TrEMBL record:
<dbReference type="GO" id="GO:0004174">
    <property type="term" value="F:electron-transferring-flavoprotein dehydrogenase activity"/>
</dbReference>
<dbReference type="GO" id="GO:0005737">
    <property type="term" value="C:cytoplasm"/>
</dbReference>
<feature type="domain" description="FAD/NAD(P)-binding">
    <location>
        <begin position="79"/>
        <end position="275"/>
    </location>
</feature>
<protein>
    <submittedName>
        <fullName>N-acyl homoserine lactone synthase</fullName>
    </submittedName>
</protein>
<comment type="similarity">
    <text>Belongs to the FAD-dependent oxidoreductase family.</text>
</comment>
<dbReference type="Pfam" id="PF00070">
    <property type="entry name" value="Pyr_redox"/>
</dbReference>
<keyword id="KW-0285">Flavoprotein</keyword>
<dbReference type="InterPro" id="IPR039648">
    <property type="entry name" value="DHPH_N"/>
</dbReference>
<dbReference type="GO" id="GO:0050660">
    <property type="term" value="F:flavin adenine dinucleotide binding"/>
</dbReference>
<dbReference type="Pfam" id="PF07992">
    <property type="entry name" value="Pyr_redox_2"/>
</dbReference>
<keyword id="KW-0560">Oxidoreductase</keyword>
<dbReference type="InterPro" id="IPR036188">
    <property type="entry name" value="FAD/NAD-bd_sf"/>
</dbReference>
<keyword id="KW-0274">FAD</keyword>
<dbReference type="InterPro" id="IPR023753">
    <property type="entry name" value="FAD/NAD-binding_dom"/>
</dbReference>
<feature type="domain" description="Pyridine nucleotide-disulphide oxidoreductase N-terminal">
    <location>
        <begin position="5"/>
        <end position="50"/>
    </location>
</feature>
Length: 363
């Protein structure tokens, strides 16, 4: 029996897991520009612990046992194939586009080069070592974790976290933000609420200088981290007829993760406007649904007969403030021990190294 072909564009958290789960059920081709996967949450701690870099850069060589990982950049897709920049065409019965998002350096690779990512991380780490004062613009998950990591590893540094909101994580019950605020302040972090930064020197990489706030205050720092959110990488879908985008640039879909008018193309992860946030935990609900649905579709079941996708009402979130303390929302607010056990201690590094077939796991 000839197995159906599935082409997955993007080897991030959704793409690589869907490829791995379907490897035994279809003829899988995973298309990815980079030679290795990088774990963004662990990249935050790698700034204060450079020994982690080798642990969080995971080559795709041993990800699949039957399918293939093709290094290249997809430039167009249709209902039946994906075309790469080098002209290669990969026919498909099903296509999944999970091209992810970009983020400020050095938390995600800015381009195709893993060496460039290594250099950027090492450079920022060296700048941080020399800095006496640090300002972090943006108090989402990355900014809050970064403040905690720096304050935990470098307690003598002056760390300021700047939030445009009136409290941390305002979408969640107040207890979560209140406890994180108290723990950050106990670590020595100063928090500025309700202020937007004006005219930042850079929005995609750390810089030396000052941050002007909306109320006229100026915060000077030896190193400023702009961490003001992810940007969906959805350009590949712009040329497809009927595809619509939300205000943030995410792709609108039907109830089965398909852009309008495309019966066998699915979008997932940060580029998909499904009601989930652009965090790893927020999109974690999508992967098992997509795997289950695609198994049935590959077996001949119509998509519309499958249960439609429903997003989190309020997704879980894990916020370690270094390796020891933190808080999380797991449908109720939990504290240091659970946050440490679930994420803070090992940052999921052993789990993902095992998924990529790598030895020498971090204990």
């Amino acid at each position: 029996m000839v197995r159906k072909k599935i082409v997955i564009v993007g080897g991030g958290y959704v793409g690589f897991e869907v490829a791995k789960e379907l490897d035994a059920h279809a003829d899988v081709t995973l298309i990815e520009q980079r030679e290795a996967f990088v774990m963004p949450p662990a990249a935050i701690r790698a700034i204060v612990d450079t020994t982690l870099l080798d642990q969080i850069i995971l080559p795709y060589d041993h990800l699949l046992t039957e399918g293939q990982v093709v290094r290249g950049r997809a430039v167009s897709i249709s209902q039946s194939d994906v075309t790469l920049e080098n002209g290669a065409v990969y026919p498909a019965d099903v296509i999944v586009v999970a091209t992810g998002s970009s983020y400020a350096a050095p938390f995600k690779p800015a381009g195709q080069s893993i060496d460039d990512f290594r250099q950027a991380s090492a450079q920022v780490s060296a700048q941080l070592t020399e800095a006496k004062s640090v300002a972090i613009v943006g108090a989402g998950a990355v900014g809050t974790e970064l403040a905690g990591e720096i304050a935990s590893a470098h307690p003598s540094k002056d760390v300021t976290l700047i939030s445009s909101d009136d409290r941390l994580f305002p979408m969640y019950p107040a207890r979560l933000g209140d406890q994180l605020k108290r723990k950050l302040e106990h670590l020595g972090v100063s928090i500025v609420f309700g202020q937007k930064a004006q005219d930042l020197q850079s929005v995609d990489m750390p810089f030396n200088g000052s941050v002007a706030l909306a109320d006229g205050r100026v915060i000077s720092a030896d190193l400023v981290f702009p961490v003001i959110g992810s940007k969906p990488q959805s350009k590949l879908l712009e040329a497809l007829p009927g595809v619509a985008f939300g205000p943030s640039g995410r792709v609108k879909t039907d109830r089965w993760m398909r852009p309008a008018g495309l019966s066998n193309v699915f979008v997932a992860g940060d580029i998909a406007d499904l009601g989930d946030g652009m965090t790893i935990v927020a999109i974690s609900r999508q992967t098992p649904w997509l795997v289950k649905t695609l198994k049935r579709v590959l077996g001949g079941g119509p998509v519309e007969e499958q249960k439609a996708y429903t997003p989190w009402k309020l997704p879980p979130i894990l916020v370690p403030l270094g390796p020891v303390v933190g808080n999380s929302w797991l449908f109720l607010t939990v504290g240091d021990w659970i946050t440490r056990k679930m994420k803070g201690s090992a940052l999921f590094i052993p789990k993902y190294r095992k998924a990529f077939g790598l030895s020498g796991d971090k204990k």
